[in-house]
Design brief:
By secondary structure, the protein is an all-alpha fold. The chain contains 6 helices and 2 strands; from the N terminus they run H-H-H-H-H-E-E-H. It has a two-stranded antiparallel sheet. Helix 1 packs antiparallel against helix 2. The longest helix is centred in the middle third of the chain and has 36 residues. The radius of gyration is 20 Å and the shape is flat. 23% of the residues are buried.
Length: 194
Protein backbone atom coordinates (compact mmCIF):
# COMPACT_ATOMS: atom_id res chain seq x y z
CA UNK A 1 0.00 0.00 0.00
CA UNK A 2 1.38 3.42 -0.87
CA UNK A 3 2.12 5.87 1.88
CA UNK A 4 0.70 9.38 1.93
CA UNK A 5 3.33 11.96 2.66
CA UNK A 6 6.76 12.87 1.41
CA UNK A 7 8.29 10.26 -0.86
CA UNK A 8 11.70 10.73 0.71
CA UNK A 9 10.50 10.64 4.33
CA UNK A 10 11.97 7.97 6.58
CA UNK A 11 9.66 5.11 7.58
CA UNK A 12 7.34 5.63 10.53
CA UNK A 13 8.72 4.79 13.93
CA UNK A 14 7.41 1.43 15.14
CA UNK A 15 4.06 1.79 16.85
CA UNK A 16 3.64 5.43 15.82
CA UNK A 17 0.34 6.38 14.19
CA UNK A 18 0.11 7.91 10.75
CA UNK A 19 -2.94 10.17 10.86
CA UNK A 20 -2.63 11.51 7.32
CA UNK A 21 -5.55 9.48 5.89
CA UNK A 22 -7.95 10.82 8.51
CA UNK A 23 -6.73 14.38 7.99
CA UNK A 24 -7.22 14.16 4.23
CA UNK A 25 -10.68 12.63 4.68
CA UNK A 26 -11.61 15.47 7.04
CA UNK A 27 -10.21 18.04 4.58
CA UNK A 28 -12.44 16.64 1.83
CA UNK A 29 -15.67 15.78 3.69
CA UNK A 30 -16.13 18.97 5.72
CA UNK A 31 -16.02 21.37 2.76
CA UNK A 32 -18.75 19.33 1.10
CA UNK A 33 -20.91 19.46 4.23
CA UNK A 34 -20.23 23.16 4.74
CA UNK A 35 -21.07 23.93 1.13
CA UNK A 36 -24.33 22.00 1.48
CA UNK A 37 -25.36 23.82 4.68
CA UNK A 38 -24.47 27.28 3.37
CA UNK A 39 -26.16 26.53 0.02
CA UNK A 40 -29.33 25.50 1.87
CA UNK A 41 -29.11 28.71 3.89
CA UNK A 42 -28.96 30.77 0.68
CA UNK A 43 -31.88 28.83 -0.85
CA UNK A 44 -34.03 29.40 2.25
CA UNK A 45 -33.09 33.08 2.40
CA UNK A 46 -33.89 33.60 -1.28
CA UNK A 47 -37.12 31.59 -1.45
CA UNK A 48 -38.68 32.14 1.98
CA UNK A 49 -37.18 35.32 3.40
CA UNK A 50 -36.81 36.82 -0.11
CA UNK A 51 -33.50 38.52 0.70
CA UNK A 52 -29.86 37.67 1.13
CA UNK A 53 -28.11 39.82 3.67
CA UNK A 54 -24.58 40.73 4.75
CA UNK A 55 -24.55 37.97 7.38
CA UNK A 56 -25.08 35.43 4.61
CA UNK A 57 -22.21 36.81 2.52
CA UNK A 58 -19.82 36.90 5.48
CA UNK A 59 -20.55 33.29 6.46
CA UNK A 60 -19.95 32.35 2.82
CA UNK A 61 -16.58 34.11 3.00
CA UNK A 62 -15.78 32.18 6.19
CA UNK A 63 -16.62 28.87 4.52
CA UNK A 64 -14.58 29.65 1.43
CA UNK A 65 -11.40 30.42 3.38
CA UNK A 66 -11.99 28.22 6.40
CA UNK A 67 -9.30 26.72 8.56
CA UNK A 68 -8.15 23.34 9.86
CA UNK A 69 -11.68 22.05 9.64
CA UNK A 70 -10.68 21.62 6.04
CA UNK A 71 -12.67 23.95 3.87
CA UNK A 72 -11.64 25.36 0.55
CA UNK A 73 -8.47 27.41 1.04
CA UNK A 74 -7.77 25.85 4.42
CA UNK A 75 -8.40 22.38 3.03
CA UNK A 76 -5.96 22.96 0.20
CA UNK A 77 -3.33 24.11 2.70
CA UNK A 78 -4.01 21.06 4.88
CA UNK A 79 -3.50 18.70 1.94
CA UNK A 80 -0.18 20.40 1.12
CA UNK A 81 0.79 20.17 4.80
CA UNK A 82 -0.01 16.44 4.76
CA UNK A 83 2.39 16.07 1.85
CA UNK A 84 5.09 17.58 4.05
CA UNK A 85 4.27 15.53 7.14
CA UNK A 86 1.10 16.80 8.87
CA UNK A 87 -0.28 13.82 10.77
CA UNK A 88 3.12 12.32 11.49
CA UNK A 89 5.62 12.86 14.28
CA UNK A 90 8.42 15.36 13.81
CA UNK A 91 11.09 12.67 14.21
CA UNK A 92 9.59 10.85 11.21
CA UNK A 93 10.16 13.84 8.89
CA UNK A 94 13.22 15.02 7.06
CA UNK A 95 14.42 18.51 8.06
CA UNK A 96 13.35 19.89 4.67
CA UNK A 97 9.84 18.40 4.95
CA UNK A 98 9.43 19.74 8.47
CA UNK A 99 10.52 23.22 7.33
CA UNK A 100 8.00 23.14 4.44
CA UNK A 101 5.25 21.92 6.79
CA UNK A 102 6.03 24.85 9.12
CA UNK A 103 5.94 27.30 6.21
CA UNK A 104 2.47 26.20 5.08
CA UNK A 105 1.27 26.03 8.68
CA UNK A 106 2.39 29.66 9.12
CA UNK A 107 0.20 30.64 6.17
CA UNK A 108 -2.67 28.54 7.38
CA UNK A 109 -2.85 30.46 10.65
CA UNK A 110 -3.31 33.69 8.68
CA UNK A 111 -6.37 32.32 6.92
CA UNK A 112 -7.59 30.78 10.19
CA UNK A 113 -7.66 34.26 11.72
CA UNK A 114 -9.68 35.56 8.75
CA UNK A 115 -12.10 32.63 9.00
CA UNK A 116 -12.74 33.23 12.69
CA UNK A 117 -13.28 36.94 12.10
CA UNK A 118 -15.76 36.41 9.24
CA UNK A 119 -17.68 33.83 11.29
CA UNK A 120 -17.97 36.15 14.30
CA UNK A 121 -18.89 39.15 12.15
CA UNK A 122 -21.57 37.06 10.42
CA UNK A 123 -23.12 36.21 13.79
CA UNK A 124 -23.07 39.87 14.82
CA UNK A 125 -24.66 40.92 11.51
CA UNK A 126 -27.36 38.29 11.96
CA UNK A 127 -28.07 39.55 15.48
CA UNK A 128 -28.27 43.11 14.15
CA UNK A 129 -31.19 42.03 11.98
CA UNK A 130 -33.20 40.66 14.90
CA UNK A 131 -32.39 42.90 17.88
CA UNK A 132 -34.33 45.97 18.78
CA UNK A 133 -33.12 48.80 20.85
CA UNK A 134 -30.47 51.34 20.17
CA UNK A 135 -28.17 50.07 22.95
CA UNK A 136 -28.02 46.54 21.51
CA UNK A 137 -27.52 47.82 17.99
CA UNK A 138 -24.66 50.13 19.03
CA UNK A 139 -23.08 47.31 21.06
CA UNK A 140 -23.14 44.96 18.08
CA UNK A 141 -21.77 47.64 15.77
CA UNK A 142 -18.94 48.25 18.24
CA UNK A 143 -18.29 44.50 18.46
CA UNK A 144 -18.00 44.28 14.67
CA UNK A 145 -15.55 47.19 14.58
CA UNK A 146 -13.48 45.69 17.40
CA UNK A 147 -13.46 42.28 15.71
CA UNK A 148 -12.24 43.68 12.40
CA UNK A 149 -9.62 46.00 13.91
CA UNK A 150 -8.28 43.43 16.37
CA UNK A 151 -8.14 40.81 13.62
CA UNK A 152 -6.06 43.15 11.48
CA UNK A 153 -3.72 43.83 14.41
CA UNK A 154 -3.38 40.17 15.41
CA UNK A 155 -2.86 39.05 11.81
CA UNK A 156 -0.13 41.66 11.35
CA UNK A 157 1.48 40.51 14.60
CA UNK A 158 1.41 36.92 13.29
CA UNK A 159 2.87 37.90 9.91
CA UNK A 160 5.56 40.04 11.54
CA UNK A 161 6.39 37.56 14.31
CA UNK A 162 9.91 37.19 12.95
CA UNK A 163 12.37 39.50 11.31
CA UNK A 164 13.26 38.28 8.72
CA UNK A 165 9.80 36.73 8.17
CA UNK A 166 11.06 33.35 6.97
CA UNK A 167 12.62 32.73 10.39
CA UNK A 168 9.10 31.67 11.41
CA UNK A 169 9.66 28.37 9.57
CA UNK A 170 13.39 28.22 8.85
CA UNK A 171 15.50 25.98 11.07
CA UNK A 172 18.14 26.85 12.03
CA UNK A 173 17.11 30.46 12.18
CA UNK A 174 19.13 33.24 10.64
CA UNK A 175 20.28 36.14 12.79
CA UNK A 176 17.18 38.15 13.61
CA UNK A 177 14.29 38.34 16.03
CA UNK A 178 11.22 36.14 16.65
CA UNK A 179 8.46 36.24 19.22
CA UNK A 180 8.65 33.50 21.82
CA UNK A 181 6.25 30.56 21.84
CA UNK A 182 4.25 32.06 24.70
CA UNK A 183 3.70 35.26 22.71
CA UNK A 184 2.53 33.24 19.70
CA UNK A 185 0.15 31.26 21.91
CA UNK A 186 -1.11 34.59 23.25
CA UNK A 187 -1.84 35.85 19.72
CA UNK A 188 -3.78 32.67 18.91
CA UNK A 189 -5.72 32.76 22.19
CA UNK A 190 -6.49 36.47 21.78
CA UNK A 191 -7.91 35.77 18.33
CA UNK A 192 -9.95 32.80 19.54
CA UNK A 193 -11.36 34.56 22.59
CA UNK A 194 -12.71 37.67 20.88
Amino acid sequence: MSRIGPANAPPLSPGEPNRTYGIIAWAIITPALDALVVSLRFVVRKRIVKSISWDDWTILAAVLISSRTGNFIGGALVIVEVHYGFGRHKQDLTPRDYREFERFSYGEWIQTFATMMFTKVSICLFLLRIVIGRTFIRSLQAAIAILVLSNIALTLMWILQCRPADDAWMQPQKPGFCFGKETLKGIILAQASQ
